[in-house]
């Protein structure tokens, strides 16, 4: 049964160990422990934290057919298999500290070397609860990431509440948001690489629209964090910053920013989220309930929240998911 308690949530703004998956996961484990030491029950880390975000400040070099083979090899080598040993380390950290964690990764396919995906994992003490692949990589990201299948737009019911969300600019996609809203999220995960005022406006709107607390977790990416042997040229001087961050937590009634935004440094922002406030907000406006008018507006298929499985498997078995919709569907 859905509960309405107060949950302490942490948005971690951090720089990965670029092109080093093991070191990035080790840093994530340390940060999970640090946030848990401050009372956090749900910890959210940035988009593609393991272990590189393909910033448009340098990623355009990959638009040519030649010249970036070494980068591609090193990205594949420093990506994550799901399930796999790096995920096991994150599960162990969640179990040790009795927390749940969401983290962005570059995911490589288990079956063969090839495509990478921008993915978000939701992990609990009992194991991997859910994996979501970004539906549509943004602009330059398409040089690096495949397109998600869209069969994972779901909410997971956990001890910290009903948790769902989307990655970065997926949050601008109204039908993608609506598909997740149908699961009734109480906490919305929004790992990102966007450090603009427009992004903060977007997550404030999503908090109001969804009736959920939104946890925005970007990277802080200084040029100085890149290894000396990074295989493509980088713009700017040594003190250039490619991503300023802006970690924030937003409440669901009026879209107020209750923690952050944090800019220009690594850090953790924490807020106590009273889940009753989401219920209060939906008395006024429920995007998939009394305010939805689904009788006259076309909507995606419903995807109810899935309970967290005891065996750590994905929250939804493939046979339980709707078939992917055709390209001509509305």
Explain what the structure shows.
The chain is α/β, with parallel strands linked by helices and 330 residues long. The protein has one domain (6-58, 68-319): Carbon-nitrogen hydrolase (Nitrilase/N-carbamoyl-D-aminoacid amidohydrolase). Helices cover 21% and strands 25% of the residues. It is built from six helices and 15 strands. The chain has helices at residues 21-37, 69-77, 85-97, 174-181, 197-210, 276-284; strands at residues 6-13, 42-44, 100-108, 116-124, 127-133, 156-158, 161-165, 187-192, 213-218, 221-222, 241-243, 245-250, 257-263, 267-274, 306-307. A seven-stranded mixed beta sheet has the order 13-12-9-8-7-6-15, with helices on one face. A six-stranded mixed beta sheet has the order 5-4-3-2-1-14. Strands 10-11 form a two-stranded antiparallel sheet. α1 packs parallel to α3. The longest helix is centred in the first third of the chain and has 17 residues, at 21-37. It is globular, with a radius of gyration of 19 Å. Mean pLDDT is 91; it is low at 314-330.
Question: What descriptors fit this protein?
Answer:
disordered C terminus, six-stranded mixed sheet, Nitrilase/N-carbamoyl-D-aminoacid amidohydrolase, 6 helices, 25% strand, alpha/beta, seven-stranded mixed sheet, 330 residues, 15 strands
């Amino acid at each position: 049964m859905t509960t309405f308690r107060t949950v302490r949530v942490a948005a971690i703004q951090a720089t990965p160990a670029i092109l080093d998956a093991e070191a990035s996961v080790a840093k994530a484990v340390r940060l999970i422990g640090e946030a848990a030491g401050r009372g956090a029950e749900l910890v959210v880390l940035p988009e593609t934290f393991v272990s590189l975000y393909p910033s448009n400040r340098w990623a355009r070099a990959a638009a040519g057919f030649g010249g970036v083979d070494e980068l591609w090899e090193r990205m594949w080598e420093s990506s994550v298999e799901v399930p796999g040993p790096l995920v096991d380390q994150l599960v162990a950290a969640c179990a040790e500290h009795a927390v749940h964690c969401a983290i962005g990764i570059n995911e490589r396919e288990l079956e063969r070397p090839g495509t990478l995906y921008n993915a978000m994992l939701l992990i609990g003490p009992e194991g991997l609860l859910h994996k979501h692949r970004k539906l549509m990589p943004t602009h330059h990201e398409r040089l690096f990431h495949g397109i998600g299948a869209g069969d994972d737009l779901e909410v997971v019911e956990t001890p910290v509440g009903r948790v769902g969300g989307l990655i970065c600019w997926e949050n601008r996609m109204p039908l993608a948001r609506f598909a997740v809203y149908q699961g009734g999220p109480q906490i919305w995960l929004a790992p990102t690489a966007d450090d603009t005022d427009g992004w903060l406006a977007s997550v404030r709107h999503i908090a109001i629209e969804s009736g959920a607390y939104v946890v925005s977790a970007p990277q802080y990416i200084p040029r100085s964090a890149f290894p000396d042997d990074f295989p493509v040229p980088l713009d700017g001087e040594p003190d250039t910053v490619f991503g300023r961050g802006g970690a924030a937590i937003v409440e669901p009634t009026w879209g107020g920013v209750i923690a952050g935004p944090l800019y220009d440094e690594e850090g953790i922002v924490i807020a106590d989220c009273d889940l009753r406030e989401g219920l209060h907000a939906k008395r006024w406006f429920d995007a998939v309930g009394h305010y939805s008018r689904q009788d006259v507006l076309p909507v995606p298929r419903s995807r109810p929240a899935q309970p967290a499985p005891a065996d750590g498997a994905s929250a939804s078995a493939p046979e339980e998911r709707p078939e992917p919709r055709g390209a001509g569907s509305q």
